[in-house]
Fold these 2 entries.
Entry 1:
Amino acid sequence: MGHAKKRVAETQMTKTQKTKGKRRATAESMAKKQREISVSEFFTKNRHLLGFDNPRKALLTGVKEAVDNSLDACEEAGILPDLIVEIRPIPGQEQRFTMIVEDNGPGIVKAQIPNIFGKLLYGSKFHRLKQSRGQQGIGISAAGMYGQLTTGSPIRIISRTGSRRPAHRFEVRINTTKNKPEFTDEEVDWEKPHGTRVEIDMEAEFRKGQRSVGEYLKQTAVANPHVRILYRFPDNHEIFYDRVVQELPPETKEIKPHPHGVELGLLIKLLSDSKERTLSSFLQHEFSRVSAAVAKKICDQAKLSPRAHPKRIAREEADALHSSIQNTKIMSPPTNCIAPIGQDVLLAGLKKEIKADFYVAATRPPSVYRGNPFLVEAALAYGREGDTMEVTETGKIVARKRASSLDTELLGNADEAIRLVRFANRVPLQYQQSACAISKGVIGINWRSYGMQQPRGALPIGPMVLVVHIASVWVPFTSESKEAIASYPEIIKEIKLAVQECGRKLGAHIRKGKRIATEHRKRSYIELYLPHIGIGLQEILGLDDKTRDEDVEILRGILERSRKI
Amino acid sequence: MGHAKKRVAETQMTKTQKTKGKRRATAESMAKKQREISVSEFFTKNRHLLGFDNPRKALLTGVKEAVDNSLDACEEAGILPDLIVEIRPIPGQEQRFTMIVEDNGPGIVKAQIPNIFGKLLYGSKFHRLKQSRGQQGIGISAAGMYGQLTTGSPIRIISRTGSRRPAHRFEVRINTTKNKPEFTDEEVDWEKPHGTRVEIDMEAEFRKGQRSVGEYLKQTAVANPHVRILYRFPDNHEIFYDRVVQELPPETKEIKPHPHGVELGLLIKLLSDSKERTLSSFLQHEFSRVSAAVAKKICDQAKLSPRAHPKRIAREEADALHSSIQNTKIMSPPTNCIAPIGQDVLLAGLKKEIKADFYVAATRPPSVYRGNPFLVEAALAYGREGDTMEVTETGKIVARKRASSLDTELLGNADEAIRLVRFANRVPLQYQQSACAISKGVIGINWRSYGMQQPRGALPIGPMVLVVHIASVWVPFTSESKEAIASYPEIIKEIKLAVQECGRKLGAHIRKGKRIATEHRKRSYIELYLPHIGIGLQEILGLDDKTRDEDVEILRGILERSRKI
């Protein structure tokens, strides 16, 4: 008995020890858990940051990343883009689809394929300032990673760089622990002389309508009239967007950073990385708009020799140099690096899609934020019952014949918020509208002064589609998924100016419409009461019926002339 | 002449060649530009993603990241946190401040300091499921990187892990090209037995009021009553938040992922990385809530042997295993890993800060999104003129004496949107309110049914502060800056349920208030007209003044009794 008791006591003690003994963490125990996180692991866990929140959005994001890359590559190589986009259900696998994007671009050299598709943060567009759709080196490898995560399948690529070279077929997986590709490669027959084809199996949901792949491709075709897209989607449907213009948009130039947009830390890094021998040549070659004279001015003000060696500039000297740069007047960055869509293309796109009463467009001159050139353009279609009108480029309003039908589906109803269509570097943006600088700019305008209703802090109300495009050598997005533009004050200001320019012409149109409507109402009163006045006159003056009718007609004529309708 | 002409012609040709000769890119020329992008380079260029958009926000973000780390470390080590937060202007340097956060935590071992402060994506919290403030391994090194970028100065750290060990002082810079730390280290005297002090010079703007460091610290003190914070800010001001409770919040447990939240790709990775010898033990040890019986069920359904070797599971078998897991009923994840702030603390915080008419709080039971347990709690203060009321825990409304003053500054005016205070794992969220799941949940509620005004798609209107807290082992933020919570349907649903629970009680209060107000109005009419009725009666019946007044009093009594005021 005594023995058994002891054993019970022992067990209890062990239990207590276990509970009490569970020590809290110390610096040493915490240190053991510290480790590196690979960027792929980070984005796998945070895949919503890349636009892979849910199966529906994932499909759109995947297609978008592949199409962006195809268009960028075609344009850089001077090829008119010819795309095939296909969404194919995987038999027997509900909620799984294969997305395919095939282009006639320059192809990708063999050695680069694994990294481009199987490594996050790898690419050619990040380290330069040039207007392009892609800019981060994340997009397409993230789409492949999402496909791999949800279906276990690798991303499949066929690419060929010329008719005299063989096509290669790759299967690429991403090792998320190391952020490195694992791949197979084989030569294959491919009918295209050059181009790239990407296939990704993914958990997805196929839908039509707002924020769908179809909607995205349609808007892409509108903003890129030089592109031809064949879109195949489930149940053997096909939509073909033919090219409308036979020329590529003007090629945009890569520029150097503007000195005023460079932060101190970056300046220090550039100085220590520089291969230039003198401060003067460093300033002239690393930045745009710095002549020898400007370089000298900057150095003088910083009390540094223009012949000093860049690598030997001390921290305090760099600080002085930075202040001096900020205080020196330097020409604005070159703006031939920006290619707008253009008023004609924007208006043509609107007119093709929407039958409205009134169209107008405006393009702002280029401007600068954080040293980066950018440009905003806007266009709108406004539809109400009544005569079709158009504003000419000189601002004159011309009446045209009545529109065949009011496209309420696209324009929205008169009592709903306007439809806002956003583009960044010719790419339509589908999600996160409320977080976007474009929305903030549009909401910040006083639409009542143009005769529209506008609830406080919201988009205006009315049957209207408003298109806004921002083009820049570097578009600041609010997240890696590139769905909304960050609210830099300079950008919001330009958005407002572009939209206000359209708004003022719209205001004139709406006021005129209101004036006409008011006159119509007054006129209908006159029409209503004139016969009664006639009868009154007949009774008082004893007129016969014919004279009465003649008098009524005379009165009508007088009144109409006086109202000038 | 002929010679001169030729030279001109040559020059022209060269010019033409130069223009025409500028060849478009090829696959080969593009390949040369392809290169790796370090995660630090990426976030330097995209620093707005980390919350360093502008000098004002940068100061708040920097303090927040340091305070989050200090509180996490103290709590893990079982130490009641004692913090000093200081914002110090740098003499002669406008727009530059030093931010200092010092704690009494366990300290950081020497070898880890450079990586923790000088490398993005490094930490102990990413690879685990445990409720904590930090979770990404980005925050504090990003703050240091921003400081370095804008001032050129290194981040300075003093840390000591115990009274018998020396304190170390580090200066850490981040090499952004390599995402690696460069540092100096020296032993120093420090009066604290253990703790960590972080100093960062940065371009910043110091402000008070909404979304300031002060506001953030105040809200932190409210949600963390076990914390003591001394806050020093420019012009020799100090605010001291003493601790209100002497106990740490219950320690939360680290949990294994729940099988239902694991994607196929992750399952494949876990299988190939596993050190377990059988599929059964793999399932039991890598996941929560999988017993031997459940493991067998999963294996049977997938037609796999429970004794199969995890590393030898083929892709198709993994797919079957994944489906089988999804189709097997498995107990919900454990919820002792979640520590709410608690209704008492939330109400006490509201009552301390705001004198309102009515307070109520609600805590939801834990729920699950993507396999991660989470919990929502809400509290609100509603203030109107009139009697102070309170709802007891049983839901009964008790009238109290009139409030001393209506705190309109905090509650907002009656015709403005309510004030929403958001917390995630006890951290107050200051920015991006409109993008947050909390806002979406609150806006999605029909506030009119509680007697409040609500514009379409907007927060309700009224003098009210609403606090919502989400606690989870992994909070899904919409960006690396952790300002807003991603809109998972399960999370929005729980937010709605918690707020609706408060809303219903508020509705009863408002309805009662309205009833009283209506009665007051009716009563005032009676008071207004009774004397006139008296005079009328006097005239008709020929009463003397005294009888008239008596009759009026009788009438008043009857009417008041019948209206039950």
Entry 2:
Amino acid sequence: MEPISIKNISTKAPDGWDKEATKLKTKDILAELNELQNLLYAENKHSVLVIFQGMDASGKDGVVRDVFTSMNPTGIRVYSFKVPTEEELSHDFLWRVHKVTPPRGMIHVFNRSHYEDILVTRVHGMIDDATAQKRIKAINDFEQLLTEHANTTILKFYLHISQEEQHEQLVERLKEPSKMWKYNSKDFDESAQWDTYMKYYEEAFNSCNNIPWHIIPADQNWYKSYLVATILRDTLKGLNMKYPGIKKG
Amino acid sequence: MEPISIKNISTKAPDGWDKEATKLKTKDILAELNELQNLLYAENKHSVLVIFQGMDASGKDGVVRDVFTSMNPTGIRVYSFKVPTEEELSHDFLWRVHKVTPPRGMIHVFNRSHYEDILVTRVHGMIDDATAQKRIKAINDFEQLLTEHANTTILKFYLHISQEEQHEQLVERLKEPSKMWKYNSKDFDESAQWDTYMKYYEEAFNSCNNIPWHIIPADQNWYKSYLVATILRDTLKGLNMKYPGIKKG
């Protein structure tokens, strides 16, 4: 596999891409997803873990809302990982995520994930490089465990925005009353570390790639949601699921 | 409060009730719910626990799908309570539900609940009456704890179907391939205990009524979903929520 070089990937839809046609297509895909999720739940054989990573204001919350609101919440759980609690820190870094991996029939969505443990922690010098390398190996082993032993399909998305778009979004949070609650005074300090984040993100993509990353151009919400919904739809279709018959006993 | 007598409550919409107009109204209410849930999450002050009880095939899964699919799954968690596990049984009966009560900002939906511990358990003679009475007191105390100490608003719905409608639905499960997975060979045995269930349900409604029960005529899906959505919308509106400003610090 060609290594991922983040700077060479556009953060936007290709020039001339039809926005309105794409929005209509997305609507159809969401209807398909609703059916497919019902089937996944009924068949109770596979599980799906969808991981979203991305810089602040890259639209992780928004894509979860846009893509997963169409599905029956009985079969969906969204987990947002924040700064670890004292209890979480007293275990290994995978403990808190392993607790909430999806059982059969379910789709679990991670809004941030165990990848923060080799991202924000490295940017802030909280772990040294040797520890990071050990964590990378542990992450690969963990994802293999879920894939091989829990019949879990893992989808990893990086929401790829430009720093300019991020700044616009952060400024929006300061101005728009319905978004103020999302603003954190440290957001701009974090943004100042952009290049360091990109370096470690790139390393994550290229060293944790047994399950490949999807780099999603994310400056435009409509394009981002369309891509994520399409990949999820194709993945679910690929499971070749069917409704089970009547249970015995 | 007038005691609830289940036999005197219709399982259907009033005669002449306009089905198509109701469906349109429900659509509008779902759009309102989407907004209100976003506000609940943003304000992060209240939490909501929605409990659904009802006989097999009364449409608990369906109403969860119809009413809650419109909301961002980041702020919704649905918990279906099945036969307790060995670990759950080695604790008090409220342990497994208390673990998953909603934190601030969240709506949790219970598909069946701690009420099963004074319903199915009594129908099958698994607990005696003295134990049932103690459990009723414990349930009242528990619901008061959540209301007073966790700022949780509790909504309790009983999906009220006729035994005839239940039989139609169960037969449908035997015939329709996409529903067969829901069929359980014990469903008809349980149905044969209808009157005993009703007796214990009625006692639950009348002895656990500090937080009142909503008895929802449930033979028609469109009417049931409309009523549940309306009550939820009015409840959320009544919280007088507002978007918080920018966090300090």
